[in-house]
Amino acid sequence: MTHKSNLLRELIILSIPAICEEILSTLLQYVDTAMVGHLGEEATAAVSTTTTIGWLIGGFFHSIGIALLAMMSKSYGEGNEDKLKNLAGQAVILVLGAGITVGVISILLAGCIPVWMGAEENIRQDAYRYFFIISIPMIFRAAALIFGSCIRATLDTRSPMIVNIIANVINIILDWILIYVFDMGVVGAAYATAICYTIAGTLMFVVFIHKKQLAISKQSIKANKELFSEIARVALPAAGTRITSSLGYVVFAGLVSSMGTGIFAAHSIAVNAETIFYIPGYGLSSATSAMIGVAYGEKNINRLKSIMKVSTVITICIMVINGLILYIFAYPLMSFFTSSINAATLGARMLRIVAFTEPFFGLMIAMQGIFYGLGKTGNVFITETFSMWGIRIIFTILCVKLWHTGLKEVWYCMIADNICKASLLGISMIIFTKRKLPLMIKE
Questions:
Q1: What are the distances in angstroms from CA 252 to CA 59, 258, 292, 346?
Q2: pLDDT band at 33 (very low <50, low <70, confident <90, very high)
Q3: What is the DSSP string of 293-310?
Q4: DSSP letters along 53-64, please?
Q5: Can you spell out the DSSP letters for 331-347?
Q6: Taking residues 371-393, what's their average pLDDT?
Q7: Cα separation of 252 and 387, whole Å?
Q8: Which of 77, 107, 112, 282 is the least crowded, having the fewest Cβ atoms under 10 Å away?
Q9: Integer Cα distance of 160 and 200 in angstroms
Q10: Taking a C-beta distance cutoff of 8 angstroms, is the pair 278, 59 a contact?
């Protein structure tokens, strides 16, 4: 009992800053959506049109971070300081390479994306401007996400939280000034977000280079083929998961967008509103990944199993509570993000439906955190691809294009996808723990 109590305390201590960081990261999109939402449905749709593309971009950087966190936390647990510092050097190379490449591609395609997303002509120009502006500081966005993962690998979740607090406070202030005081609307929100990315990336780099465990040198920044190969083995399935997931969200959002601006605005706001209730789960998942990686490096199978059990139970319990809160406060939450009564009413109906499935989403998040901490990203990729495209997308196409149903049926497709992922990952974890985990520890 004492062992589990200590483990619970350690998990909570690490999770609280990680949860706060997730809240603050999500707040960046929330503030834009809420402040722009009061300008009307068209402004909301303009900002929301490229949201899923933003998830795709963030997911690519996050996949690199997952690989580095898994490898660096394992090295940290093993006490392998040389490998830890060499991995830190490779992180610098990856931030520069990925940030510049993705930034250039995003800027070049900014004008096409609103069209591909099926946005109506009256909002395409604003959607283009918003995405173009927030794509300019892409290297800083890469730095914030990738260096943040490296810092968490050393069981430091507090520093990334502080960075996000500073950046997001500045973002809120700038949003208010640029959107309302200078009356810049959607463009003002974009400039505020771009500045926030720049500040977050810069500060995260400062923290990164001052971590003694990650002390980089000219030698460590040189490309290491062996380490890059190892990073790729973990990162590619994680990137594949994010890509197949985000592309699925893009197609899903495009299908909903074709149902009309009003419906799409209600859907987008409801999705953003629901996201805040996932945050504690993702914060726990992030802390769990780091603890799992360190325990794996220490070859401590009993501790590994305890972390798995404790984190899963806590995450599901939290999501049960969040589901209840979401159901009760669905309409007030929607009203906070939009002045449109129609959008708030429709979105609240969707939130009350999805509230009952929050525990399944909690199970899915917990399983992902465990697999990522072990560097076993292939299981998550297979599950995500099958469920997203085999269930959500196919049945949404049928609902929208063939059966011509409403938004409620579309959300049922989304719910079915989440339940399927949770069930498949849960079964995979049981099999993995019994058959493969003991072998991995003995290697």
A1: 17, 10, 33, 18
A2: low
A3: HHHHHTT-HHHHHHHHHH
A4: HHHHHHHHHHHH
A5: HHHHHHH-S-HHHHHHH
A6: 96
A7: 13
A8: 112
A9: 9
A10: no
Each residue's pLDDT tens digit, 88-103: 999 999 999 999 999 9
Segments forming the whole domain that contains residue 355: 2-442
Closest CA to 143 of 72, 203, 59: 203
Give per-residue pLDDT as tens, 189-202.
899 989 999 999 99
Give the chain's domain count. 1
Query: In this prediction, what percent of the chain has a pLDDT beyond 70?
Result: 96
Q: Which residue has the tokens 């001052």?
A: 210
Give which of 346, 259, 293 is closest to 154, Cα–Cα: 293
User: Distance (Å, rounded) from C-alpha 283 to C-alpha 12?
Assistant: 10
159: left (phi over 0), alpha (psi -120 to 50) or beta: alpha
Kindly report the pTM of this predicted structure: 0.85
Instruction: Write the burial class of residue 378 (CB in 10 Å: 0-12 exposed, 13-18 middle, 19+ buried).
Output: middle
Sign of CA dihedral 7, 10, 14, 16: positive
DSSP-assigned letter for residue 216:
-
- At a CB cut-off of 8 Å and minimum separation 6, what does 161 contact? 17, 18, 20, 21, 24
